[in-house]
Amino acid sequence: MKRKMFCLLLCLVMVASLVAGCGTKSTSGDGAASGKSSDKLIGVAMPTKDLQRWNQDGSNMEKQLKDAGYEVDLQYANNDIQTQVSQVENMISNGCKLLVIASIEGDSFGTVLAQAKKKGISVIAYDRLLMNSDAVSYYATFDNYMVGTKQGEYIKEKLGLETAKGPFNLEIFTGDPGDNNARYFYGGAMDVLRPYVDSGVLVVKSGSVDFEKVATANWNTEIAQNRMDAIIASYYADGTKLDAVLCSNDSTALGVTNALSASYKGEWPIVTGQDCDIANVKNMLNGKQSMSIFKDTRTLASQVVKMVDAIMKGGEAPVNDTKSYDNGKGIVPSYLCEPVFADSTNYKELLIDSGYYTEDQLK
Ligand code: BGC
Question: For atom 9 of ligand 1, which residue has the closest CA?
Fold first, then answer.
């Protein structure tokens, strides 16, 4: 009898611990792990593990917050909007004192953030702005417009657009329409390139120029690849030269270069990117991608940790921009880090000497 009771108890304990381990929660930190709310618990919501950069952002944030004495509830949402909203709800009910959110879709947090505000929980939008909510305390990112202008300027300079008559053939790939950044990247680049499209020096044979037409859902590599495959088949299969492809980031650039490798026969075009993901740096080194924008995720994380620390100590967070980012409910005070141009000539200094990657990772 005693033995049966013991087995029953053991089973109950096992089932309970299985249930507890089933969620997506990957909480770290003593208070959180024991299920107790802690005065030092910070919720960090990241969009997806699919893209290299968010893994780096998440681990940099976790490490730097822990080094500063905080406990961290770090969650990834597999690019699923509803999952991310639930994760943030859980962070609030689990007693997080501050939320750092890199959203999948900036517009989907209205109700949840209202709950946070009610409870006096500060919210920092990480990299991507949280839209249409008055509960967003701060925004920390890289200068997104500048990312776009740097990509546009690169194409302008390499094609010599100021003096050359062209016409040059250009195709355009930007990011997810639910990510506020995508419009800034596209806007910055097109502010440089559009005059040349209007004057006919740049020709977009596919006819896809407007943001909605060149957006890539979820910044997904395959979606970009499929669109580029179709464009090559329709407009460049007869040997027509493609001169440049404006890609807002590396995951779209990867799709574009995959398609070019598979079926484009002409001289290789200029291809832009952003993030300096390993696969793309390798492509830069073997001539398939011309440049990328380097956004050192360590810098962004350390800026956000400074913000967290200031807020948690009851002060104001450091910002350097109080006019650029209106989320629909007002200007969100922001800290903009500076993006840097990277190509095969300076990657060593930027990426290896700085310890971002090892030489071996790029082989
Ligand atoms: C980020 C980029 C990233 C893209 C796709 C944007 O919001 O700013 O660095 O490449 O999302 O994840």
Answer: 275
273 lines ligand 1 (CB under 6 A): no
The Cα 343–Cα 48 span in angstroms is 26
Digit-coded pLDDT (tens) for 230-243? 999 999 999 999 99
> In this structure, are residues 124 and 140 in contact, taking their beta carbons and an 8 Å threshold?
yes
Say if residue 25's pLDDT is above 80: no
For residues 21, 23, 29, 32, the Cα torsion angle rounded to the nearest 10 degrees is -100
Cβ neighbours for 353, distance < 8 A, ≥ 6 positions apart: none
How does pLDDT run across 197-215, given as a tens digit for each residue?
Answer: 999 999 999 999 999 999 9
The 10s digit of each residue's pLDDT in 32-65 is 444 445 799 999 999 999 999 999 999 999 999 9
Whose CA is closest to atom 5 on ligand 1? 219
What is the H or E stretch that residue 151 is in? helix 144-159
Model-level pTM?
0.88
Is the Cβ atom of 53 under 6 angstroms away from ligand 1? yes
What is 26-136+296-337's CATH number, 1.10.150.130, 3.30.540.10, 3.30.479.10, 3.40.50.2300?
3.40.50.2300
From the CB of 127, is ligand 1 less than 6 Å away? yes
* DSSP bridge pairs for 340: 294
CA of 295 to the centre of ligand 1 (A): 10
Locate the ligand 1 atom nearest the alpha carbon of residue 102 and give its number. Answer: 7
144-295: what CATH class?
A: alpha beta
Q: Cis omega before residue 167 (within 30°)?
A: yes
Of the pLDDT bands very low, low, confident and very high (cuts 50, 70, 90), residue 178 is very high
For residue 219, give the ligand 1 atom closest to its CA: 5
Identify the residue whose C-alpha is closest to ligand 1 atom 3.
Answer: 249
